[in-house]
Amino acid sequence: MIASDRPIRRTMYALGAVGLTLVVTGAALDLLWLLGIGVWAVIAAILIELVYRP
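Predicted structure:
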């Protein structure tokens, strides 16, 4: 891994973790808006992975 890739990977993992947490919490509490925000965060993490793949 190149040193310049670390901030991107950290951002990707953080977005993925926050997104999955929001998805699980939104599903458990039956809050669709929270579920939607979590899904979009996971989608953003996947897009970052696809665009910045070394």
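Summary: The chain is about 80% helix and 0% strand.
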